[in-house]
Every structure is written in C-alpha cells, then in structure tokens.
C-alpha cells in the first residue's frame, strides 16, 4: 500500500513532467520500431523484449502502456494473417479456373497470373509478373485488338464480354481468343486493377466452320436428291403412260380371243390366251400404281372430289374381296356403323386405298385365319381399320414398309404377287385427302392393323 501511494505521489509530484517526456520519447521510439517490423512471431517476441529493456516497468503507468503496445502488435499480426489467408484463398480460386486469367495494374503491368495461363501460353513466372502485357513472350501479346480493348474500350466501360481476338502466337501458333475484362477496386482508396480472362475458342471455331460446311453440303445434297426424285417421277410417269397404251391393246385383243369372238379355240389355246390376259392385267395394275405414285411424288396428282356414301362404298368393296377370302377359307368380319356419314373425297382414289388394304390382308393371312374391317365416325372424320391375323411385320421393317417396291421377306411374300407399292401409295393418297395413316404390328406371325382417317369435309378442296 505504501508503495502504491508512493507511486501515486510520484506521479503527482514534481517529477511527473519528466516521466511524461520520458514516455512520449519511448512511445515515439516504439512507433519507429513497430513500423519496421515484419508480421512474424519471432520478430514480434524480439520486439517485446527490446521494448521491455528500453522502457522500465517499475510503474503501473509503464506496464499499462506496454500492455497496450503489445495488444497492438498482436492485432497487427492477426490482421496480416487474415490478409495473407485472403490472398491464398483468392490465388486458389484463380488457379482452379480452367481458362487463363491475368490481372493488370493501371499501367497494364502484370500483377498476378493463374497457373493455366503459364500452361497454355508456355511462359514462366519470372518472365511474366511485373512485365507490361504487350512485352510478354517477345512482344507476342502486342496485339492491336487487345490494345483497343485495354486502352480504348475498357476505360469507358467497367466490363467487357466476348471480345474476339485472332492472333498468331510465337509459342502456340495461331489462336482465336475470347476475352472477358473487368475493372475492380482492390480496397478503399486503392487503385483499380484489371482482370482479364482468356478463353481459347480455336477448336470450337473450327468445329463450327466444319458444321457450316457440312450443313451446306447437306443442303446441296438434299436439293440434288429432290431434283433426281423429280426427274425419276417424271420419267416413270412418262414411261408408264407410254406403256399403258400398247398394254391396253394387248389386254383388249386377249379378251376378244378368249371370248372366241372371231373363232373357236381349243382348250390349250384358250388356256394360253387366259394366261396372257391375267399377266396383262397384272402388268397394267403395276403400271397404274407406278403412274399414281409418280404423280403424287411430283405433286401432279389431282383429286376429283365428290360426296361419297361411305357405308355403301365399303360394303361394295368388301363383296369384291369376299370371293378371294373364301378361296383361302378366311373369316371376314365387318363392323360398319349404321349411321356412318358421307365424306367429300375422290371416289376412285378411296376405292383404290380400301381395295389395296383388303387385298393385302387376304394375301398375307394363312388359310383358316381371320381378316376384318371396322368403320366409325370420330369427331369430324371417318376412321377405318383393316386388320388380319396373318404374318405380321417385324419391328425392324416397320419404317421400310413405306418405301416403294419394298416387300417384307416372308414365305408368303415369295409365293404372292405384288410390287410393294400398295401400302406406300395408299398412305400418300390418304394424306393427299388430309387424313392420317398408320400401321401397327406386334411382330412376325402376330397380325397387322392398318388405321386411316378421312375428313368428312375435304381439306383439299382447292386441289
């Protein structure tokens, strides 16, 4: 207690001005000492020992000042450590970015560089950091468009995206780069720095050019294919027309001979004439299908529209097919709505569609099987379904059946006549009327179902 009173008395006494000058001098010395310190633990401890040796700790006031100064040192250490952690964190982020990234000061000198920059442009840190960007790599970065970005565009804007630069680099050859630039403030009162991200899009550009070239070649090929298809259709149409005239004469004279209009024929002669007539009619049917297909593909098919009583038309055609079905002992099942409305369509083309489909189900259904036809009204359309329990269609052939002259390879297709045009022609004629056409099958030997629609009021009235 006496010592404390003595110390208080000494502070209040005549010696206080001298101690005040002493502490001010020592604080000044400490300030100079602190400003010269580096933020590491060893030097901080040395500074504390030096301070204690310089300033006596015989009084409470001295210990308080030393404690305060020591706290300032510790706070400075913490602040410096936080700053270092922040720098390490920022550098980790920069080095993780796949695209090269570089930061520049206001004089366009390199401050920091990402690892990917060194990897891509084959340069070393000693040759990069602190250098003017235009001087990097034997001045290979002295690019006019880069100068325009950094010196003209960026000063007027804080950001810039997707600035394309094409240049021949000494180390990596000709490259097309996409530049993205940002100006950022590093801290309060500090100068701005420029962040420059560089994306190499050379390969992407080459791919794009390749795709453009391929697209143009595909367009040219498609145009040529259309031209070839048009020429083919015109050729088939002309040839079919030229063939029909003499073939009609052959069939006509064969009928006259078979009817024995100009004289009797023996049994063998009559058989041969009948074979000529059957073959002629089959060939005429083939020519007519080719001609119709050619007209549809060339856009020259014209519909002659009229009001069709669908119920009676379907019954009429089913009677024609019933005889063929009876010869193979097939069960024909018809489900035609009593109130089936009329449709506006081309009568000959609709009959051709239905006859083609019914002929197919008879042709590709083994003896003793079932075939059938259903017809009903669905909204503003007539839906017709033709089905069978026959050979069916394999899944890999579902798309091919609509190709001209394609026939599914089955034991029945080898012994039956046909051109493979019936199904694709029927589909095109349905679509020409504005309807829809589809084929369904669960696979080989599981039957086939063909479904098509015809609008009651034709959508092709102007055709």
Helix/sheet category: alpha+beta
Number of structural units classed as domains: 4
Which sequence of SSEs, written as H and E, runs from N to C? HHHHEEHHHEEEHHEHEEHEEHHEE
Strand % is 15-25%
Q: Regarding CATH, which class of the largest domain? A: Alpha Beta
- Uncertain segments are 1-17
Here the CATH topology of the largest domain equals: Heat Shock Protein 90
Integer average pLDDT: 78
Percentage of residues assigned to helices: 40-55%
Multimer state: single chain
Helix count from the secondary structure assignment: 13
- What is the CATH homologous superfamily assignment of the largest domain? Histidine kinase-like ATPase, C-terminal domain
Largest sheet: 5 strands, antiparallel
Notes on the protein architecture:
This protein is 52% helix and 18% strand. It has 463 residues and is an alpha+beta fold. A five-stranded antiparallel beta sheet has the order 2-1-5-4-3, with helices on both faces. Helix 8 packs antiparallel against helix 9 and helix 10 runs parallel beside helix 11.
